[in-house]
């Protein structure tokens, strides 16, 4: 398992490093990066989520137990992070980065590792995880950005932002296509799949391009806080929820795996779009990705021993 996780994380680290190098060498014009972020947020990431949810095979899997575990754990951890906000000596936009760093997950790595561990069953379990967590996390993040981000939103603006969020819409459409059995039309499916596949390298290059190690010292507190939530609190809450709802076996391990994933490149894109602290978000994303090479195997080994897996 450790080898599969490390192999899945290595290309993520390399792509972030390449984005950093390209930006610092001015290989591309500075105007390229904001447009690349916009393309990823509005087109590529939604394509990935829509395709994954619409084409997943969910037969004979504990769908509702897995969904219940993931959603309840995410809501509890999100509430705890917001409650701890007064204890953090950071401004509102920086808090949105800590919040995203604590509850978002890198679904690309999660799918890769789940497939390596459980094959076709792992891919189906990963699709359920995406269906459960992606809409939940995106709605929570929009609410937090509305309250703490630099671009404050009215109540109507919050509703509009949630209903028009491309990631939430993509998940809703994918779930609807899955539930109705319609799936994606044969002529459209390859195009949606290709667009989704492009979201990983472009998103990670943008994360690397935004890194500024000149302000690294100011990241220490937020990075430690978000990483503690991500690698300790979130998996522990997931294990407790699984115990309460009777989730076990490969489904439990997949849930723990996804909840222990480092935060995703989409967190940086969302921070840029909704008034968060984007440079801090890029630092948290990059740091968590590096930490994950040691944290994920260690956390999963401890939790597996505790749960008897």
Automatic annotation (TrEMBL):
InterPro entries: Mem_transp_PIN-like, Na+/solute_symporter_sf. It is found in: Cell membrane. The chain crosses the membrane at residues 6-23, 39-58, 64-84, 105-126, 132-150, 162-184, 190-211, 283-306. Belongs to the auxin efflux carrier (TC 2.A.69) family. It is a multi-pass membrane protein. Its main location: membrane. It comes from the Bacteria. This is AEC family transporter. It holds the Pfam family Mem_trans. Keywords: Cell membrane, Membrane, Transmembrane, Transmembrane helix, Transport. It comes from Teichococcus aerophilus. Gene3D superfamilies: 1.20.1530.20.
